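Submission sheet (multi-component)
Chains listed below:
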Amino acid sequence: MTQPLLEVEDLNVWFDLPNGGQLHAVQGVSFAVPTGARLGMVGESGCGKTTTILALMGLLPPTASVSGRVLFDGVDVLEGGEETVAPYRWKDISMIFQGAMNAFDPVKRIGEQIVEPMELHGSASGREAAARVRELLETVGIPPERAKSYPHELSGGMRQRAAIAMALACSPRVLLADEPTTALDVMVQAQILELLMYLSNELGLALVFVTHDLPIVAQTCTHAAVMYAGKIVEQGPIDDLYHGARHPYTRLLWAATPDLESRDDVVSIPGVPPRLDVELRGCPFAARCDMTAERCTVERPELQVVGDGHVSACHFATTLEVVA
Amino acid sequence: MSAAAVNGGPLLEVEDLVVRYRVPRGLSGAILRRPERFVHAVSAVSLAVRRGEMVALVGESGCGKTTTAQAILRLVQADSGSVRFDDTEVTTLPSDELRRLRRRMQIIYQDPYESLDPRFRVSETVSEPLVIHGVGSRAERRHAVAHALERVGLAPAELFVDRFPHELSGGQRQRVAIAASLVLEPDLLVADEPVSMLDVSVRAGILAILDGLRDRGLAVLMITHDLSTAARFADRICVMYLGRIVEEGPAREVIESPRHPYTQALLSVVPRRDPRRRVEPQILRGETPNPIDVPSGCRFHPRCPLFASGEAARLGIEERCRSDDLALHDVAPEHRAACHAL
Amino acid sequence: MSPVQPGVSTPDEAPETRSLAVRALASPVLRNKSALVALGVLGFFVFLAIAGPLLIDGDPKAKVGDVFEPPSREFPLGTDGGGASMVAMLIAGARVSLLIGFCAAAISALIGGTVGILSGFFGGKTDTALMRITDYFLVIPDVPLMIVIAALFGRSTWNIIVIIGIIYWTFTARLLRAQTKSVRERVYVQRARALGATNSRLVVRHVLPQVTPLLIANTVLLIAYAIFAETFITFLGLGDPSTISWGRLIQNAFIDDAIINNAWWAIIPPGLCVMFVVLACTIIGQSIEDALNPRLRTGHLSVRRFRVLPRAAQPEQPGS
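Outcome: structure written.
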């Protein structure tokens, strides 16, 4: 079996808190992303999904401590901290940030900003870089002559495309996207998703898609990981996750999402996620789960295999009725 | 017993509402006598909401749905058109009468983190409407606040009355905002994207509150860009594009049998929950033009799939699409759309 | 449509409920070491001012020694050109200088705050008119204006306070106007207006609590300005001849030719006192302003270096 392009093993991230404690934001997260795969990472705000992908790029603040391995082509890029991860950043693995369309320097032209990473990494310069910029703009669907435009001259959707172009500047093999379509209208969202699918299907780009919007993941991703309180509680092929969810949280998330064509009741999940600055006993979801048993409050469930490439961290994972 | 209830007519009736803003020409523009330009935020919008009905006003950003809501509540002055609330014309009402009418029309905003004064306790926020309008004694107000909090699921009320907003989650804050709007027992509630900034796990709870209000006779006008939510909760849907309503009808019908090309395209790109449910997306090219340079004729024609595919030519309507900005017409019982092809 | 369960919302664990205003003002000052020192210095001088009469016996201007005696055990800071103890004069001067400073700052804050809030809240013609007035005051050179007013209305302490007060309110007005404009656009203010709240209610209940911390921070800075202004007004000879202030002490020193007499103790100490108080007020005022404006923080611009825990040192996984 070929080695996955990106492999994350037991990633943990702690943040120092001002009052002295630590916030355990990411707890033992593991997943693999083969070339050309599209992995969705879903969960509510505060579940750790954004911190996870920031850790993959080493974009954590000085208050953060990490442990675990991030293997790119088999090489642990996290081992030496900033030193080992910096060479990969933007060259092999790149990112579109939340609100990327607003992260442009307002006084520099778009073209200049896309060239910047190329020059910083020494992958192209001068005429070569300019040609590459035009190529990238065409790939993302922006007329190449717009390279001379300033960010405020472009619409929100076009700025998001420009952000994608900037992320692709050094031809990365993995693209991390943090809520790339959240602030966009549904039609522009469709355009951006179409672009990302094209990049994945035609250019073989591996995609890690962080979002809270489940239907987007259902329609664009091949696999998904559901995160809760810093942990992955269920992971597998997207079809299995919808038609054969093996974790109550996953099931409830789907049920909480209205569908255009469904007449089902929409549910809400009572309560709030647990605090991450104290150690938890038992399952982190126990307080809000609709199937909590005695065991759930004392024993923490580990991820267990429930299908082909499908794991779930629930004591009742294998006995849960499969709702088709 | 209000006049509308006796007639059985709609509580809120909007007809040909127009809101436009003048774009400043500047000194050079005035000297050179450049033609004045306007932001055509709302162009001849008509809609109606009955008691016990939830109408969803849907559309993408810039379509004018929020401005429409603001004009209905007279938070923004309409340039022409009529807004009749319980048979009273709102647009021309003198300010003291408007103040009294405002008690019966309330608004809930999108951002739960900004709609509560951070220095007010929950009890102060929820009782503020009563204080402003001089309703009830202190004891009566306390009672009304507790009742409103319980209606929105913040029970027991004693646990919440003394809290500050920063001690509450987003969902709880939005519930407080709803409680504050219910305390005057309004007849119409305008909810501007009430759940778009909340986690999906808490949305249903908030929407259920709004849903339940309809059963008590409240009329709800919900502004949203989320068609799935509109499909599930609204009785009627009005689809807006560039300041006009392009289609409106019973929610289920608009979703299942959309007649206007824009509605059809919009619905085709909304992601479905089921990974196996693949819909051929009709992705429109480009973006919505800005409301200053509104296309001539049917505002949608430059992006209309009927134009691109040649269907409009085949039907012989191209010229009309380019020159004739038409109004809504019936396409089915209670279902109207504004398209030359229908 | 079948009704869906509203779902009861459970309260979160309650963090402390101390009033936001207290937290906003107190904690930044208390956490900042230099602000704490500044607070101590200011407190020291305020104590001197208040306890003044208890610390000095009799009239501080009385001749108790020879003219320009150098510092000694009897007179720790020597005597001035009239033979009075410098220490006694400084303490007496503290009283007047701080009083003038605080009062003038209060007047400035009152005028500037009112103008700024009204201007920012109402906008339109009110804003234009008030800002025009503000601009006129900004343009007038302060020192000549002070000279003219002193000449016209006489040189009393009260006049000095008024003069300083009416010169320095413009900066406060602009600051408060900007802040008020921003608060006015906040959703909860719009909501209250949509409910039918009167303007006075909106200003008093919603705008004022939000802008007051900034006003306080600015007033503290104004105190620094005012004290310094008093010093140079008096030095220019426009001060009240019957009162002792630090400015007067410096002026006296010059009139009495302290420099020629090498009597540094007559000039430098009053100057230092002014400097310390002004510095203290500036530091305190700025620390409050910094805390109120998170955008001034630059910590996030530092080079990011997160820590990678070596395998052996990884903390124990929380047990199941």
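Remark: Residues 15 and 144 of chain B are 35 Å apart (CA to CA).
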